[in-house]
Amino acid sequence: MQSSLDTILLKVASRCNINCSYCYVFNMGDDNWTHLQKKISTATVDAFCRSIERLLRTQESIFSIVLHGGEPLLIGIKGLTYLLSSLRAFLPASYPISIQTNGILLTTEILDICSFYRTTVAVSIDGPKEVHDRWRTDHVGNGSFDRALAGIRLLQGHSDNAFLNTGLLAVIDPCSDPGEVYDFFKELKAQSVDFIFRDGNHDRLPLGKSSLDSLEYGRWMGGLLDVYLSDPDPVPVRILDDMMKVLLGGMVSKEGVGVTDFGILIVDTDGSIMKNDTLKSSFNGADKFGLAANIRDICLVDFIRSTEFISYRGSQRPSCTACRNCPEIGVCGGGMMLHRWSVQNGFGNPSVYCADQLYLIGKMRRMVSKLICDHDRSKLPGLLPS
Fold it and tell me: pTM here?
């Protein structure tokens, strides 16, 4: 298997200014954040950049860097400027750097800095106020919708919005109305939206899912698909676009869609090199490698050639017989690794969302086939393989 990286999530702050009830970092049993320094140090930034410089020279394919947290903007103006200037001293503009933020701390000054260092911004917001504030509250229980929306409006109003604004991220609430949620993003004039499933596994079902065979999330996504394909001028929905691209014979590079080898690593605020941090929701310490490694002591180039990384990367492929024999494995790819966990079988299970995915894929196949048969390919813009 090729030793390369597609995405590096750099944890620049280990705390957050809000307290989302579903957060896998703070509220699903993992305690690593309590042992981490609150903000990344200049020494760790310098070590990371030295490692990136070597990776740039040895890896042919482009990789991206995502600044993450906690809430990454807690790093502050001075820290953000130092970090971005240091990264761009080595990385040309063709190498994406982005920030995933809750939007509350966005200011014109921060956006100016991001614009100068060619760093894009994605904001997390789950939908209309009543949906968002049900789960995304601050540390005293107040909703964060109004402050997040203000950040999005500030981003949309920036003179470099066309570059800076890479879209919104929403966590699905299966109790909400997918049509109302989509209409909210349409009215917001969102650049794009990526919807993600709640974290959960076979031992701890995701919120709103009553059993492994139930279809709450599949039906929600099916409702979203109905609205999406009926909109003559749709807001791009990445998960639907990616699934349809794969279904129609195309390729995507995204974990949890299609059969991909997705190279992702986390570098924590103290420099620790970790697996995908969403694994935290499986069990305490699930994102740790067997042998501790730190960016100050080992270069990323050497680490991704190690048996530790190669084994971790290979484990993203589903291992259970049901998945490997499933005719739809090429579309769903077995789903996200964290959704396969159980104490009994480890990650050797189908996704907890298997039934939902099969329902959605089946509906998607029927709808796409009808559109193609009706010669209405205009509703599949950019999705048909060349």
Answer: 0.91
